[in-house]
Design goal:
Shape: globular
Structural class: alpha/beta
Helix content: 25-40%
Largest sheet: 7 strands, mixed
Radius of gyration: 20 Å
Number of strands: 20
């Protein structure tokens, strides 16, 4: 680990190794070099580790894993104005082309040429050093820790989801799935002023955590059909004709179906979780309720800035989600724990960085 740029590399499905990589060079006058200090493990990282692919994204060559990171700036390009060496930053790990129609329209997260960390063929952030453009590195206030900085990435995912749902003051919201993103959706919805936030999951431990963390109520579904489960959910939580908003953060077909059955007429549904490529979907009910149905993918303009601001001013707390910490040399152990469903968010310290 004493080399210049030790990296945690996925060589093929099920096989990882520590490799020495060259220290990345600044590619542009606007780039900065960041020494990575903390990295969270995302479900997509584990999926690549286990399967070697997610949909059409296939690992065909060794790839550095990781994309939920924070670190310290060590070098800046000559055109960089807002950052300097020593600044602690959260990293937004996707670089859009900035020239296509989607980028120019302000939806750069939909850029077809996005270079996203740890998405083939692009290397991720589980290394000592990583290079990004200046505007994708967000300075952390002095009282925000590097651990919290690593959680800005999943928080930004949740911010984007809740914005897609147009959650407003006094909204009622059901979030299906109490993994890290689902939990953070509950927290963001609360920060946005939602009056009732119901967390749904089949894992009782996750539900108990959610109830203490940000949800105003929790719901444990049975194996009943989705329409019956939805009716019980609405009845038990006094949601009237149904919630204003339903967010699926699980990707599980029964959750998706339950959400559509539960929503009030004219409600909003956002698909955030990724599961099977195709599921049975209640399209007739969607039509007759005249639901607004939206997808959500990563994050876009303003999501990172708002995430940093909400952590800084206390509107959202992310510290509680950190349930495990490991040294860089124990990264594979952390991946095993996440695969086994242990804890909520496990952080891997950067090379040479203590826990």
């Amino acid at each position: 680990m004493a080399g210049k740029n030790p990296s945690f590399v996925l060589r093929k499905a099920g096989e990882v190794a520590f490799e020495e990589r060259p220290v990345p060079e600044l590619k542009s006058d606007d780039d900065v070099l960041v020494e990575i200090k903390q990295t969270g493990i995302c479900g997509s990282d584990v999926h690549y580790w286990v399967s070697g692919a997610i949909g059409t994204y296939v690992v065909r060559a060794p790839m550095v894993l990781g994309h939920e990171s924070s670190g310290v700036v060590t070098q800046v390009g000559p055109a960089v104005k807002s950052l300097e060496a020593g600044d602690r930053v959260a990293l937004e790990p996707g670089v859009p082309c900035r020239r296509c129609t989607r980028c120019k329209a302000g939806t750069y997260n939909l850029c077809p040429d996005m270079a996203f960390a740890a998405t083939p063929p692009f290397d991720g952030t589980l290394a000592r050093y990583y290079v990004l453009p200046e505007d994708l590195c967000y300075r952390l206030p002095a009282h925000v820790s590097l651990e919290e900085g690593a959680l800005i990435e999943p928080l930004s995912v949740a911010v984007h989801i809740v914005r897609q749902a147009d959650v407003r003051a006094h909204s009622s919201v059901v979030v299906l799935g109490a993994g890290p993103v689902g939990l953070l959706c509950c927290a963001v919805a609360r920060a946005f002023g939602a009056r009732k936030i119901v967390s749904v999951d089949i894992n009782e431990e996750r539900l108990a955590f959610s109830g203490k963390y940000a949800a105003t109520g929790t719901f444990l579904p049975s194996k009943a059909p989705p329409d019956e489960t939805a009716a019980r959910l609405v009845r038990e939580h006094e949601l009237g004709l149904g919630p204003d908003v339903a967010i699926d953060a699980s990707g599980a077909a029964p959750s998706i179906q339950t959400a559509i059955h539960a929503l009030r007429p004219g409600g909003t549904y956002v698909q955030a979780g990724m599961g099977a490529p195709d599921v049975n979907f209640p399209i007739t009910l969607m039509c007759t309720k005249e639901l607004s149905v939206r997808g959500s993918f990563r994050y876009g303009p303003g999501d990172y800035e708002l995430s940093v601001a909400m952590v800084a001013d206390g509107r959202v707390s992310v510290k509680e989600l950190v349930t495990g910490r490991v040294r860089f040399r124990d990264a594979e152990e952390a991946f095993r724990d996440v695969k086994a469903g242990k804890g909520i968010k496990i952080l891997i310290a950067g090379p040479g960085w203590g826990i």
